Amino acid sequence: SPTSAGVEIEHLTQNVLKSYRETCQLRAEDLQLRRWDTFSREEVCAYQRKPMEEMWQRCAGRITEAIQYVVEFAKRLRGFMDLCQNDQIVLLKAGAMEVVLVRMCRAFNADNRTVFFEGKYAGAELFRSLGCHELISSIFDFAQSLCALHFSESEVALFSALVLVNANRPWLQDQAKVARLQGHLDVAFRVLLRRTRREGLLARLPPPGRLRALCSQHVEQLQAFRRLHPGVLHAAFPPLYRELFA
Amino acid sequence: QEKHRILHKLLQNGNS
């Protein structure tokens, strides 16, 4: 009946919000409080002087930490653990980095184009020694464009659940089951937007291709780094990072 | 599955 469907959707929404709150890594209030706490010129120079391998290793470490929270988010999402293991892995392998990029907009200060990194806010120039200027610029541009949407915490929660539960990912075994869950999350998102008079957001969301392109760009840069520094990836990068991207 | 050993392990470790 329409009523019980409504109750179901409300339960799902509450589950997504709770799962997100429990796994958001950094609280929005804390990020907000520290948004003008930027690295000093000397600190930026110290990062810029780091060898490329060390900077890559640091960034891989921070990405891996963020991904572990996304895995916990997925595990708490109602219905996710009912999918077969193949599909859980397919969705995480394809979507974890995309969710990290979406979550990053919370840790981004669009007023001075800085992102929270290792305890303070950092501009794109801090990442210079990575040797992938274009990728960093694209990620900063993406964060800037998401910030312009003024996402609420509930919107980030539901949007990231939808980025993760995507029935169009290749290699799914039970695509219909993923599509059902995706459909319920989609309804939950639309109900939330209607309730908060934010339906206009739907037309302004980034197209899925944009997230996919950023993730491919990351993998391409990793391959280029690997050619320059053979062996470093295996010796010094987190195993989960290697498993997902190498 | 062997290729995704760590992801597997993380998924199987209860809701920690």
How many β-strands of chain B, per DSSP?
0
Low-confidence stretches of chain A: none
- Counted beta strands of chain A: 3
- Neighbour order of strands in the largest sheet of chain A: 1-2-3
The helix-strand sequence of chain A is HHHHHEEEHHHHHH
Radius of gyration of chain B (Å)? 8 Å
N-to-C span of chain A: 48 Å
Low-confidence stretches of chain B: none
Distance from N terminus to C terminus of chain B (CA atoms, Å) equals 22 Å
Briefly note the structural class of the backbone of chain B.
mainly alpha
What can be said about the biggest beta sheet of chain A?
A: 3 strands, antiparallel
Radius of gyration of chain A: 19 Å
Beta-strand portion of chain A reads: under 5%
How helical, in percent, are the residues of chain A? 55-70%
The oligomeric status of these chains comes to: heterodimer
Structural class of chain A: mainly alpha
Q: How confident overall, as mean pLDDT of chain A?
A: 97
For the largest interface, the chains and their residue counts are: A-B, 15 and 11 residues
Write the topology of this structure.
The complex is a heterodimer of chains A (246) and B (16).
Chain A: H1 2-22, H2 28-33, H3 41-49, H4 52-76, H5 85-103, E1 108-109, E2 114-117, E3 120-123, H6 133-147, H7 153-164, H8 175-195, H9 208-228, H10 232-236, H11 239-245
Antiparallel strand pairs in A: 1-2, 2-3
Chain B: H1 5-12
